[in-house]
Amino acid sequence: MFFIEELEKLNQTNLLLRFTLEIAALISLGVFAWISFNGYFKYILTWVLPIAVMIVWSVFAVPNDPSRRGQTVIAVNGVTRLVIELLIFAMAVAALYFSHLKPVGIVFLCLIILHYIFSAERIKWLLNQ
Description:
The protein is mainly α. It has one domain. The protein has helices spanning 2-36, 39-59, 78-98, 102-118, 120-127, and strands spanning 60-61, 74-75. The two termini are 30 Å apart. The relative contact order is 0.15. The model has no long low-confidence stretch (mean pLDDT 89).
């Protein structure tokens, strides 16, 4: 019984980590746009880039995904969803790297890897959809 409770706590902690990583990814894309562009383009991309990624992230989902309460707007298979997630996280790490925040990017990458290690069951589920 104790082991199951501890696994549940670990899963909840991993979901919190995932949510935090998603928010950090959006922020890192906005920071990249702010640092990398000038003029009106700077202001527009600082808002539009994270919003566009947020829309992609929330719209494309696997039906009945327990980590998303089963809700989806555009249904995709599990492999497609996993690729979308990995691409967004890779873009965020690259954004930090090119924003001259390499140490932050390395820490961010390590946390992403940690998240996916603890998400092995979800990854298996996604690959079977």
